[in-house]
Design brief:
Strand content: 15-25%
Helix content: 40-55%
Largest sheet: 5 strands, antiparallel
Number of strands: 12
Order of helices and strands: HHEEHHEHHEEHHEEHEEEEEHHHH
Distance between the termini: 52 Å
């Protein structure tokens, strides 16, 4: 079904009403900022949340049109069902040498024209289907000055970003495979690892060359976040610690913090908001280091049974 038909089926509006609605879509966002991880000078991330009505339409058009037409490369580890940051880290856990790179201003660097060009080039939209292209542009992208860009906060943005980088991921994965280098991408985080000494030093230049060669999107590397590491140093991938024994771990400081939070919860010293955040972090911890969770269950059985789903523990 074409985007036009999907919208008409969901909105029940005339052609003139559809045109007016599309004109307003890129402005139907609530903008706010949240704290980012790390110690950057500007430590706040801009979020643009679409209105509930636009968000519902984005999900519908995503599920009924984009998902079945655009592939996502297996090297893309973010925003996929049954895949976590722990799975991303496991890819690199047994390798000695590590390189981490980061895209700069990732989502807003992806333009409406990029997605339209991809859909035309892949044969999923005819270049003369101006209404369908207008729908794609204005439903999924927001105003950023004179341009329509991908927002951080729309439910459709994660899939679109992965689909837009399919060709990039394919080129990089094939190149790395030939060199016995493991490659994965978690949103804007690129990770490379190997057992071959010094081979990773050529990768940044290759990535820059690849970014220049692809038609879309036009992305840049945040060179300040390019980091080489090895087993001689602490290694982290998407917030997960890689141990020198080839395992993944929460890391000492995070485990210490988690113990403290569970203790405070056991003494009724956490707010409802803090307890909710703790539940989420415990679920994440179970995917990374389940044995540590078992130790908390033994030490704080009553508190942990109030914090974690019953599926995470057993009375047997």
């Amino acid at each position: 079904m074409r985007p036009e038909n999907i919208l008409r089926q969901n909105l029940f509006i005339s052609g003139n009403e559809l045109d007016r609605y599309l004109s307003s879509c890129p402005r139907r966002y609530k903008h706010y900022k949240i704290e980012k991880r790390g110690g950057e000078k500007d430590n706040r991330r801009s979020i643009s949340q679409p209105t509930p009505e636009l968000k519902a339409l984005q999900r519908t058009l995503l599920d009924e049109f984009l998902v079945e037409r655009l592939p996502v490369h297996q090297a893309a580890m973010a925003y996929k069902k049954n895949t976590s940051i722990a799975d991303n880290a496991k890819i690199h856990a047994r390798n000695s040498y590590l390189l981490k790179m980061d895209f700069e201003n990732f989502f807003p660097s992806i333009k409406s024209s990029d997605l339209c060009a991809l859909l035309i080039d892949s044969g999923n939209v005819n270049k003369d289907d101006h209404l369908d292209l207008r729908i794609i542009s204005r439903v999924f992208f927001m105003h950023n000055g004179p341009e329509l860009v991908l927002s951080i906060g729309a439910p459709s943005s994660p899939f679109i970003s992965n689909a837009m980088l399919f060709n990039f991921d394919k080129i990089v994965a094939e190149h790395c495979g030939n060199l016995h280098i493991s490659y994965s991408r978690y949103s804007d985080d690129l990770t490379f690892s190997t057992t071959v000494k010094d081979i990773l030093f050529d990768i940044p230049a290759f990535i820059q060359k690849t970014l220049k060669s692809i038609k879309y999107p036009k992305l840049a590397i945040n060179e300040k976040k390019t980091v080489f590491s090895s087993k001689a140093h602490n290694r982290h991938v998407t917030g997960v610690t890689l141990s020198n024994t080839g395992e993944i771990s929460l890391g000492r400081s995070k485990k210490r913090s988690l113990r403290t939070q569970v203790y405070l919860f056991s003494k009724d010293q956490l707010s409802l908001k803090e307890a909710a955040a703790l539940r989420g972090y415990i679920a994440f911890s179970n995917s990374v280091e389940p044995k540590f969770l078992e130790s908390l269950l033994k030490k704080y059985p009553k508190a942990m049974r109030a914090l974690v789903p019953a599926t995470l523990y057993s009375d047997d």
